[in-house]
From TrEMBL:
<dbReference type="GO" id="GO:0016042">
    <property type="term" value="P:lipid catabolic process"/>
</dbReference>
<dbReference type="GO" id="GO:0006793">
    <property type="term" value="P:phosphorus metabolic process"/>
</dbReference>
<keyword id="KW-0443">Lipid metabolism</keyword>
<keyword id="KW-0442">Lipid degradation</keyword>
<dbReference type="InterPro" id="IPR025202">
    <property type="entry name" value="PLD-like_dom"/>
</dbReference>
<dbReference type="GO" id="GO:0004630">
    <property type="term" value="F:phospholipase D activity"/>
</dbReference>
<keyword id="KW-0378">Hydrolase</keyword>
<dbReference type="InterPro" id="IPR001736">
    <property type="entry name" value="PLipase_D/transphosphatidylase"/>
</dbReference>
<dbReference type="InterPro" id="IPR051406">
    <property type="entry name" value="PLD_domain"/>
</dbReference>
<dbReference type="Pfam" id="PF13091">
    <property type="entry name" value="PLDc_2"/>
</dbReference>
<dbReference type="GO" id="GO:0016891">
    <property type="term" value="F:RNA endonuclease activity producing 5'-phosphomonoesters, hydrolytic mechanism"/>
</dbReference>
<comment type="similarity">
    <text>Belongs to the phospholipase D family.</text>
</comment>
<protein>
    <recommendedName>
        <fullName>phospholipase D</fullName>
        <ecNumber>3.1.4.4</ecNumber>
    </recommendedName>
</protein>
<feature type="domain" description="PLD phosphodiesterase">
    <location>
        <begin position="217"/>
        <end position="247"/>
    </location>
</feature>
Amino acid sequence: MRIFRKIHSELNWSKRRYFGVILSVFALTYLSSAIYHTHKALPEGLNYSSQLKPTPVQFLADKTYIDAQGQQQLQQQIFDQTLKLIEQAQSTIVLDMFLFNPSHGDSKQQFRPLSQELTDALVNKRKQNPNIEIKFITDPINTVYGGTQSEQYFQLRRAGIDVIETDLTPLRASNPVWSGLWYLCCQGLKNNTETGWLTNPFGNEKITLRSYLNLFNFKANHRKVIVVDTTEGWKAIVSSANPHDGSSRHSNVALLVSGATAVDVLRSERPVAKMSGGDSPVVVFGDLKEPVQTQAQVLTEAAIYNALLALLDGAKAGEQLDLAMFYLSERKTVDALIAAKKRGVKLRILLDPNKDAFGREKNGIPNRQVASELHKAGVDVRWCNTQGEQCHSKMIIKSNTKDSELILGSANFTARNLKNYNLETDLRVLGNRDQQVFVDARQYFDQAWFNLDGRKMSVDYAQYADESKLKYGLYRFMEWSGLSTF
């Protein structure tokens, strides 16, 4: 204390000057924290790009549509196939799923209990084969960052299944305005499920302020994959679909791959488990039993972005580009689409209208603002005909008279999903346009675009057109700053 008094006496500063110095130090520290955590090195093994390898690839889809009688119908393949893979597994099952809970918000629709179906399948598999290794990696949003308990976690762990909730702290800050402060004040705060008093945005349980402090970082392990070993070799599904009850009515797409590419999917999960304090899944070599013509590549994080821009920039006049996307907002991607249109590439863009979120109404940002920009540039845009659910597909396919290229998976085309912030997994597939995977992907898109077979799956651009300059400016600010959930 004497030292401080002596310093104070010698400096003879006013209280205002002391306050100014303290405020300046805090501001510098906050700014340094925000910059560092936005650009810090990623854990080793993320931003992964495997080699292109010959791979059998099957296209899967969940379709939600209005039939000729005006009734909503659901046609689902993805989790039916996921459950089949679990049945076929021999010694190993590894899953990495973003949303895994029974919540459905304020929606009054009927939902398929996907989270419990998946839980029961894994528990039953463990009972049938007590020696099977099952690792379930998921995102902490399912317990609202430690503020609630998960019945599904409890059932899995009681069966001896390893549940790894992803540690998001090592990931970069996509919302540096908040994260710059959070890393200084709050990252070490332990959460609990007993003292909640605030409204839960995802369910009925009360949550703590600490849950919200973590939520505002807007970080996520957004991957959606399963890898198993079967008597026919390794198989994996990379998808846009979540095992989440509230998402069970969504339209989604997925790819089923085998052999070495399935092993590459497994390999891409090792760094996620490691950074979260879990044991790494065992990686073994995967062979193909027969030659195939399609090639596939596993992409995670910004590797998806690089492949996407290469696809768009390489599109030539007369080629066809079809994009089906839940969120489209990343600026270089939007600019590349417009540039492709100017080069004579034929574009069709199918977007979710961003109006529904589990019973709550959204304001259309960012898709309606991006669609306005694309429409003015002469790009053909249509909207999915959603009726409370979401058009949650995330895929782009390029075709010419001979070849096709497809990128599909968990990643929305936004800065958060493409620029090394979220954890994401996509597959890139190359081959002859007549290969079945490309035929099926184009058929999925064409059916939605043209409302084929009496199925009302899309509507004209004019139905959700929004030319508001204020909302466009808000979208640009949200995309630039990270102050958004997209």
